[in-house]
Amino acid sequence: MQKKVIIGLSGGVDSSVAAWLLKDQGYDVTALFMINWKDSSVTLSGDCSWEEDIILAQLVARKIGIPLEVVDSSDKYKASVVEYMFSEYEMGRTPNPDVLCNREIKFDVFHEAAQRFGADFIATGHYARTKKVETASGIYTRLLAGKDSNKDQSYFLCQLSQWQLDNVLFPLGEIEKPEVRRIAAKLELASADKKDSQGICFVGKVDLPTFLQQKLAPKTGKVIEISADDEYFTNQNNLLQGETNKEDLIEKSVKPYDFSVAHGVIAGEHRGAHYYTIGQRKGLSIGGKSLPLFVLGIDVEKNIVYVGQGHNHPGLNRKGLFIASDEIHWIRPDLALKSGEEKDCLVRIRYRQALQKATLFMREKGLYILFDEWQRSIAAGQFAAWYYGDEVTGSGVIS
Asked: In the chain, what are the domains?
């Protein structure tokens, strides 16, 4: 008897080839197209709307020979993802809607559809892998990086739970992207030449301030430039280098910079501090500098944006980060650290970032992550995901 699979079909090349692979492997496949965003007025010109995507999905499903179901999750998406984005930016944090979308929308909707259609598995076109492992405490699903290191999307799945991963198939986990394109071209799938999606999950590429103005009004404020040679950074480094107490060193290593005590000069004005993110280069509209300006920090209460010149400005770099206890998520609960325990691992704080060597320090207040090398543009609200080898074992929201 054929095993039944529900796969998310977005109209993109990855999910299209994933659906074909499942059909080719003998599964009884039903595709599911999700409508999560309908307002095309906020997307930049040239981005496909869901109306265009659904046509591609219909053509692909017809070509492969599988049924296509459509579900409208736009209300849930707005409530769970978009409102979360507005709230985070309003507080001066940098959210990752793609990670949240997988946890709150995609896999929940897929599981509901699986129950409705009596499916044995759910599937997506993510470049990731899963593998069952039996331990003394039970059987768990390991979430592994995709074989294509250039396309590995395990980071986007770092907030999934064991029950969400239990019956998931990732057909592209062992395949590299060029091969996916080759398969799509050979099959003459309508999505073969479709560019990879960019921007916000299901929304597309947007001008962030314009998008956020739906809820967050513009508010003119000062842009303050801080020199890379400011003594504040020298003092901060000296504090770390001179610290001999381990616990104090951990605390100081994760503490964000307080740019208000540095010696800054007014460099211009901005439209609203909540529109900017740490490490941002574009959108400042301030010229006449010898090096490009980058956002070092933002203060939404005082409506100040702090900037500095150059990619290597010390204000962009930090040695560690902190995740509060209630924000820690273990994909593998059997591997969760107890207070006082430490673990060497690999960490990334954004998609496509190379995995960084780090040490986890679990304490009563939460999880401290100290990197072997200084890290650029650590921002509150982002997700940090930690790996044991090529397995994502946990993640959390940076404080």
From this structure: 4-125+171-204 (3.40.50.620)
Q: Does the active-site annotation cover 158?
A: no
The residue ranges of DSSP E strands in the chain, in sequence order, are 4-8, 28-35, 68-72, 121-123, 128-135, 138-145, 168-169, 221-226, 264-270, 293-299, 304-309, 317-324, 328-330, 342-348, 356-363, 366-376, 383-388, 391-397
In the set 48, 158, 201, 345, the catalytic residue is: 201
Is there a catalytic annotation at residue 201?
yes
Predicted TM-score of the model (pTM):
0.94
CA 48/CA 26 separation, integer angstroms: 32
Residue 272's Cα: distance from chain center in Å?
Answer: 24
- Which pLDDT tens digit goes with each residue over 180-237? 999 999 999 999 998 887 767 766 677 778 888 889 999 999 999 999 999 999 999 9
Catalytic, out of 48, 101, 158, 345: 101
